[in-house]
From TrEMBL:
<dbReference type="InterPro" id="IPR007372">
    <property type="entry name" value="Lipid/polyisoprenoid-bd_YceI"/>
</dbReference>
<protein>
    <submittedName>
        <fullName>YceI family protein</fullName>
    </submittedName>
</protein>
<dbReference type="InterPro" id="IPR036761">
    <property type="entry name" value="TTHA0802/YceI-like_sf"/>
</dbReference>
<dbReference type="Pfam" id="PF04264">
    <property type="entry name" value="YceI"/>
</dbReference>
<keyword id="KW-0732">Signal</keyword>
<feature type="signal peptide">
    <location>
        <begin position="1"/>
        <end position="29"/>
    </location>
</feature>
<feature type="domain" description="Lipid/polyisoprenoid-binding YceI-like">
    <location>
        <begin position="32"/>
        <end position="200"/>
    </location>
</feature>
C-alpha cells in the first residue's frame, strides 16, 4: 500500500515538473512592451453647439505582452492608464468643465484592462501588421463598462505600434456632457478616442 502511495506521489511530481518545464518556452516567447510616453498620441474628439473640439492625453502609461512564436501573434495582456487631468484642450475653461464632468477630484485615472482577444488577422499585402479586436474593461469617472477595442497592431524590431479609433457615449459612463455659458453651449454625447501609440 505504501509502495503504491509513493509511486502515485512520484508520478504526481513528475507531471508537475513536466508541466512546469513545458510552460517555460511559452513564457520565454512572450515579449513585454511598455507604452512610450514621449511618442505617439491619444486624443478625444467631440462636438458642441459652438464647434468641434479635441483633448490630448499628456500623461499615459501601459504595458502589453505579445507572443510571436506562432503563425499569428498572441496578445496575453494589455492595459493602459490615462491621468484624467492630463487631458488638455488648450482652453482652461473647457479643461475645467471636462474635469468637473469626469469628477477628477474622486477619480484620477481612466483605465482599460484587456480580458481577451476576440479576433486577430493579418492585414493583406502588409507584413507584421494585424487587425485586432480586444475585449476588456474600460473605467471612466469611476464607472466600468465592458467594451470591444478595435486596433491595428504592427510589431517589428522590438517595437509595437497600436492605432485605432473607438466611439463612446459619455452617458454610458454616467457622465453628463459638459455645458458652458449658462448652458448656451452644449457638448454632444458622442465622442471618439483616437490612439496612435508606440510600445517598446
Amino acid at each position: 500500500m505504501q509502495s503504491q502511495v509513493r509511486k502515485n506521489q512520484l508520478s504526481f511530481k513528475a507531471v508537475i515538473l513536466l508541466m512546469t518545464f513545458g510552460l517555460i518556452p511559452i513564457a520565454l516567447a512572450a515579449q513585454s512592451f511598455q507604452l512610450s510616453k514621449n511618442e505617439g498620441e491619444v486624443k478625444v474628439t467631440g462636438t458642441s453647439t459652438l464647434h468641434d473640439w479635441e483633448e490630448v492625453a499628456e500623461q499615459r502609461n501601459g504595458s502589453m505582452a505579445i507572443d510571436q512564436s506562432g503563425e499569428l501573434p498572441s496578445i496575453s495582456s494589455l492595459s493602459f492608464t490615462i491621468e484624467a487631468e492630463s487631458l488638455k484642450s488648450g482652453h482652461d475653461g473647457m479643461d475645467k468643465n471636462t474635469y468637473k464632468a469626469l469628477s477628477t477630484n474622486k477619480y484620477k485615472e481612466i483605465v482599460f484592462k484587456m480580458g481577451e482577444v476576440k479576433s486577430i488577422s493579418p492585414v493583406v499585402s502588409t507584413t507584421n501588421k494585424y487587425k485586432v479586436v480586444a475585449s476588456g474593461n474600460l473605467t471612466i469617472a469611476g464607472k466600468t463598462n465592458k467594451v470591444d477595442l478595435p486596433f491595428t497592431l504592427t510589431v517589428h524590431d522590438g517595437k509595437a505600434i497600436l492605432e485605432g479609433t473607438k466611439p463612446l457615449k459619455m452617458t454610458d459612463f454616467g457622465i453628463e456632457p459638459p455645458k458652458a455659458l449658462l448652458g448656451t453651449i452644449k457638448t454632444g454625447d458622442d465622442i471618439e478616442v483616437h490612439y496612435n501609440t508606440i510600445w517598446k
